[in-house]
Amino acid sequence: MIALGPRQEDERRPYVGESLVEPAALFMQEIGLGDYLNSTQMTKHGLSSNHKIKPGDPLDRRYSVHAPHRLYHTAWQLNRPKVDGALRARAEELGARLVTGRMHDCEIGTAATGHQAHARGGERDVTFSCRWLIDTTGRTRRIGKKVTTCTRPQARQRSCFWFRLADFEPFLPHIAMSMRRLLAYDLWETTHHFLGHGYWIWGIPLATECHQRLVSIGITFRSDIFPHPCAASKTFSTKNIRRWRRWSAPAKCSTHQRVSRVPLLG
Ligand SMILES: Cc1cc2nc3c(=O)[nH]c(=O)nc-3n(C[C@H](O)[C@H](O)[C@H](O)COP(=O)(O)OP(=O)(O)OC[C@H]3O[C@@H](n4cnc5c(N)ncnc54)[C@H](O)[C@@H]3O)c2cc1C
After folding, report:
1. Following CA atoms 6, 11, 15, 16 in sequence, which dihedral angle do they give, to the nearest 10 degrees?
2. What percentage of the chain exceeds 90 in pLDDT?
3. 162 lines ligand 1 (CB under 6 A)
4. Which of 14, 163, 193, 214 is an S-S bond match for 206, by CB 3.0 to 4.6 Å?
5. pTM of the predicted model, to two decimals?
6. Ligand 1 touching residue 159 (CB < 6 A)
7. Which atom of ligand 1 lies nearest, measured to the CA of 12?
8. Residue 24 CA: which ligand 1 atom is closest?
């Protein structure tokens, strides 16, 4: 098996995907990374969903909270750069050949002829012939775009923002939770989802060597419904961090935004 792509240190994309879903966690165990993940990464106890009791009132902090009482599988919240490195090393141990380069074109053949991938790595162009060609280029969909048609929306779409906050104070003690049953695990160790009319916010507790209390926050919204239009990340952070600071202790900014208490939107 050949895995073609940039070296980890040359990756130009932001890391997204910091919280393993259960099938991916089982797959990681299957390929022998269970002990590594157990000893280095934070446990993830599934998903919890929070619905506002009084939608539309940002100051009302009462939520109806939903999560399974008991979990059959746990997963992990990932320190992605570290885990990506460990995963690459494990893939090599298992016999994969990691080739540095980018695919610039491909020819999709049939089961009888196989396929071809044309790659550029450094000064050299290389062509690989293969029986299976798997598109793992993510949102680029290098092969996907070749084999399907895609209609781009006419207006530029910008309705999702994500960022990390350092030295984050867990918000659970600051909201009033209504739950049908007690949980057999620590609710903070879940991925927290806040759902309302036209928006979805997620919060993933993370930890790195530098920041033990890190949280990754993502906000996605229907721009035709959500009443606070925002088209650029700069406007978004200026508007909202200012709004949060009104309610929180003075905040300093570094590579991660530092905010001590973040009231939730919506
Ligand atoms: C903000 C955000 C948060 C998310 N959080 C989660 C989460 O917590 N949990 C979860 O399960 N999912 C999450 N997702 C979804 C998840 O991140 C994606 O489904 C996942 O990253 C897709 O992985 P991938 O390997 O297919 O693509 P990517 O992670 O995008 O990786 C694509 C790779 O292909 C390489 N590449 C691109 N073009 C070429 C080329 N021409 N030749 C060679 N290599 C190329 C890139 O350099 C990159 O290494 C999130 C998505 C977003 C946007």
Report:
1. -50
2. 57
3. yes
4. 214
5. 0.83
6. no
7. 47
8. 11
